[in-house]
Every structure is written in C-alpha cells, then in structure tokens.
C-alpha cells in the first residue's frame, strides 16, 4: 500500500522529531521520513493536520487471540496445563484474529504484538509476533517463533502442585528446566553425531534452538529470588535471557544491568493479587532504566487492556521514568528485545509502514489515536466520537 502522511509532528523515536514532517510509504514499507520529502505522483496524501505521527506501538508480552475477551472457556487457549514442558507448543496455532482485543490494540496505537503462551507450565511454548490486523494469523505474521516462554514462581508450582505432581515447589520448577536443557544438550550431541536418519523430537528441537542462541528464553518471573534463579539457569546453560514481568527487578537492577538482561516490565496497573506481586510499583521502570537495564513496558493483555499500554508509560514517567525512555519502551525497545527492529518499532526507511497519527502527545492521557496504518493500509480511524476498524474479512482481493 502507498500513502504519504504529511503536515505532522513526526516522532521517529530512533531519531530527532521533525516539525511539519512527512512519512512516505510505498509497497507497505517506509521509504522516506523528513521535512523535505518529495511525494511521487499518484501516491495518496493524508494530512496529519498538525497531529503527532509515531510508529505503531509494540506490545512485547501479551495473550491477544489466545485468551479471547468475552468468550469464557471457549476462548481460553493460553495454557496447555497437562505437561510441564510444552516447548513444542506454538501460540501461533491458537490465535483467533477475531478476538476483540485486536480492535482495542489498534485504538490504542498498538500495531504489533508478541503473543505468548501463559505461565501455567514451566515451559509454556513458542511465542509469535503478529500485526494487530488481518484475516488469518498467517496474514498477520511478523515472525515465528520469536522466543520460548518459561515460568518460574507461583503459577507452575500451583498448577502442578494441585495435580499432586512435579513440580510443586520452586525447587521442582527449576529442576524441570534443568532436566529439559540437559536432555536437549544430549539430543543435540546425538543429532550432530548421527550419520543417517535421525528420530526427531519436536520438544528437544525447540530447546536446542534456545541452546544454540537462535531463540531467546522469555522467563516469567516476579520475585527477586526467582529473577536470580533465572539468571543462574541462563548462566549455567548459556542461553539468551529475557526477563518478563520483573516485578521486583528494582531490588537487583545492578545484576540485570551487569549481565545485560532486558526486562519486559509489567503489567503496572494490576492489583497485588498474589504474594509475588507485593512489590509491584510504577516506579520500577524508572529504577531499572536508570540502572542501565533495557526495558519494555507490557500490559500482559488481558490482565491490563492492551489499549492502556501507553497510559502505563505515562504514569511510569510521572513516577520517575525518563520521557524518551518511556516512548522507547513501547516502540523500539520491545522491537529490539524481541528481534523485530528490522521490521517495526520506529519510523525509518526500510521498516514496515506501521504509522499512527495522534491528536497530540501520546503521553498526554487526553490524546487519542486518530488514524492507524498497518503496512501502509489505513485500518483504524477515529471520527465523530467513534473509532472504526476496517474489517479484514471484507476487503478487496
């Protein structure tokens, strides 16, 4: 799709803002950003009318489409809680593009989301990055898989403890991870040594990719002791660790910074519904960032509705997070952490044409997303007091 968005205050995030700037998109990709962009003949022009123009936001950790809103049991496909090691499972296979959450995402300026299995299993499965608009998940796909989800702490020990099976303690949870990677190491060695046909194991194939560095490990952990366990296991097996949630990350921020482990922090609006959330604070993002930790802010949708992603960033600024870091934490940072920054997260030539026109500064709670473009196609518009999403199910072929 081709479009030129003109006359806006363009905030590329990865560069300096541009007054009265233009973003030119051709064939779904950004080809130029600046104040003196020549718009080719025949390219439709959309005026931002002085509004703010930003890249679509990136949600780095949520359950869009696998935990459908308003559908109850029928729309709940977040956790396959029958096997502690679900590495072979794929969130891709459970996403329903008709989930109401996708429309909410667009209304909040979120155009890309990393969808992850839940935290009921010790190893939940493979995560996937999708655009927030499309008829099928295959249409929406950005990259798959982008990481493997794992959980420490209360959730897996409660799920399997209630079943009277391993793991029922934190010791057991760590042991499941350690056993799984030990088996994956042995499997990789046997596969490398095989001279003929080899019986593949889909679970160990995935874990082998974590060990060889091609897939990062997205580790659900809230308490400081669980984060320390995550660091210990990552050091033992040598994989790339991404801390998800990191509620008490402020207590060991120096260790996270020293080991260059990013933190996808949040949800920040959630209640302290369990013991490991007692340390939840809107100040934590600022503490982590000032310590030198790369952060992304998450809603953990539907724990916090995904269109409130930007509001979490706003209140984190109120509690000490640098404003520029706050914008980065919902754009370029999550894209970089999840290995998607060659596609999304900023406004620069070569990236996907995912652009949002805001009525004003998006960190002002009174601002709203007015027009949303995905791959250069307008998919959401706010007008006359109502937001309208273009239906992906009724479009020209």
From TrEMBL:
GO molecular-function term, one example from the UniProt record: hydrolase activity, acting on carbon-nitrogen (but not peptide) bonds
Alphabetical keyword list: Hydrolase
At the top level, the lineage of the source is Bacteria
Q: Which SUPFAM superfamilies match?
A: Composite domain of metallo-dependent hydrolases, Metallo-dependent hydrolases
Q: Does the keyword Hydrolase apply?
A: yes
Query: Which residue ranges does the record assign to the Amidohydrolase-related domain?
Result: 52-376
> What name goes with this protein?
Imidazolonepropionase-like amidohydrolase
The scientific name of the source species is Saccharothrix tamanrassetensis
Taxonomic lineage per UniProt? Bacteria, Bacillati, Actinomycetota, Actinomycetes, Pseudonocardiales
């Amino acid at each position: 799709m081709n479009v030129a968005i003109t006359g806006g205050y363009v905030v590329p995030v990865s560069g300096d803002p541009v007054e009265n700037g233009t973003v030119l998109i051709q064939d779904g990709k950004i080809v130029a950003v600046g104040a003196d962009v020549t718009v080719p003949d025949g390219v439709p022009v959309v005026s931002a009318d002085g509004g703010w123009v930003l890249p679509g936001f990136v949600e780095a950790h949520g359950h869009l489409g696998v935990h459908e809103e308003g559908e109850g049991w029928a729309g709940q496909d977040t956790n396959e809680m029958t096997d502690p090691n679900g590495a072979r499972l794929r969130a891709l296979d459970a996403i329903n593009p008709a989930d109401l959450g996708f429309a909410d995402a667009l209304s909040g300026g979120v155009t890309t989301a990393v969808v992850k299995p839940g935290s009921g299993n010790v190893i939940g499965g493979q995560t996937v990055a999708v655009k927030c608009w499309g008829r099928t998940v295959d249409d929406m796909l950005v990259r798959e898989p982008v990481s493997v989800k794992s959980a420490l702490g209360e959730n897996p020990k409660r799920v399997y403890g209630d079943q009277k099976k391993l793991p029922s303690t934190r010791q057991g949870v760590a042991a499941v991870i350690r056993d799984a990677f030990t088996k994956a190491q042995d499997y990789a060695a046997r596969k490398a040594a095989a001279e003929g046909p080899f019986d593949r194991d889909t679970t160990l194939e995935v874990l082998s990719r974590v060990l060889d560095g091609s897939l990062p490990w997205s580790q659900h952990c809230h308490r400081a002791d669980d984060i320390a366990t995550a660091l210990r296991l990552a050091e033992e097996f040598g994989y790339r660790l991404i801390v998800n949630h990191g509620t008490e990350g402020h207590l060991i921020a120096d260790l996270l910074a020293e080991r260059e482990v990013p933190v996808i922090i949040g949800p920040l609006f959630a209640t302290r519904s369990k013991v490991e959330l007692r340390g939840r604070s809107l100040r934590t993002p600022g503490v982590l960032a000032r310590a030198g930790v790369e952060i992304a802010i998450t809603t953990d949708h539907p724990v916090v509705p995904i269109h409130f992603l930007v509001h979490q960033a706003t209140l984190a600024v109120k509690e000490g997070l640098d404003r520029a870091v706050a914008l980065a934490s919902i754009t370029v940072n999550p894209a970089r952490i999840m290995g998607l920054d060659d596609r999304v997260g900023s406004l620069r030539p070569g990236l996907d044409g995912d652009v949002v026109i805001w009525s004003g500064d998006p960190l002002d709670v009174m601002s709203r997303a007015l027009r949303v473009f995905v791959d250069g196609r307008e998919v959401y518009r706010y007008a006359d007091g109502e937001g309208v999403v273009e239906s992906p199910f009724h479009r020209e072929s």
